[in-house]
Amino acid sequence: MTQIRVACIQMDVRLCHKGKNLEKALQMAEQAVLEGAELVVLPEVFSTGFCYGSMETSAETVTGPTISALLAFSGKHDCVMVTSIIERVLPASEDLRGTGYYNLGLCIESGEICGTYRKTHPFSRERQYFSPGDSISPIRLRKRDLIIGLEICYELRFPEVARRLCLAGSDILITVAEFPNPRQHVWRTLAVARSVENQIPHIACNRTGVSGDASFFGGSLIVDASGAITQEAGEEECVLVHDIDTAGTVKVRESITVFKDRREDLY
């Protein structure tokens, strides 16, 4: 595959209102597929927000109702969906850190889970509630000739995460996030930088709205392999749709040979 139409869904997330958030997300995803999107990205923990006060009810296993609804939507529309949810680990003994919860990134293709990624760098208060994942690997789609490099929010600040995903063969980098005010400049700068330094298309999907004492600026981006911003959202809820041509990555990497010129003997 060299071209795929992608959609980033920038939505407000109502804290701990799983049903309302899921309903809205699927309505917006319906709009995306009507516009021809084959790959749909939702923000970090889109169905609940960081619902720390009700973790037992907000968290789910991979067989829970939220993922089941995403599987059904993906199967019906033969599309790919990428997002994250609060995962509950059963039995808890499987979680060596003992919290019983992860921020679980997942990639669903045509009604099946084709890969998951547990956030390896929980941010600040998250560390009280989430265990960190212990591996960073891209997700290979099963039906489409495409490899997804998925990272979650705070990990945008760690260039090593994106570089590892890209060295492992990712075709598209995806960041799902709840990046809050007042850090819009940081978000925009790093989203473009991760694309430029790895010469890869990047879908950076952020939420918007207000949650507790935090507010969110949106500012979702789709960036091409040269670092050019092709789609950018403001603060309102919206669906960004764009065609990504992965063949363009080859041309960019041939014109500026960053990967060939790396000094592996030094770093």
Polypeptide structure, described:
With 267 residues, the chain is an alpha/beta fold. The protein contains eight helices and 14 strands. The strands form three sheets. The protein has a six-stranded mixed β-sheet with strand order 5-4-3-2-1-14. A hairpin with a 2-residue loop joins strand 4 (101-109) and strand 5 (112-118). Helix 1 (18-34) packs parallel to helix 3 (65-77). The longest helix is centred in the first third of the chain and has 17 residues, at 18-34. The protein starts with a strand and ends in a 6-residue tail after the last helix. The mean pLDDT is 95.
Key structural traits:
alpha/beta, six-stranded mixed sheet, 14 strands, 267 residues, Nitrilase/N-carbamoyl-D-aminoacid amidohydrolase, 8 helices, single chain
Quick recap of the structure?
This protein is of the alpha/beta class.
Helix content: 25-40%
Q: What is the assigned CATH homologous superfamily? A: Carbon-nitrogen hydrolase
What is the structural class?
alpha/beta
CATH architecture verdict: 4-Layer Sandwich
Uncertain regions spanning at least 5 consecutive residues:
none
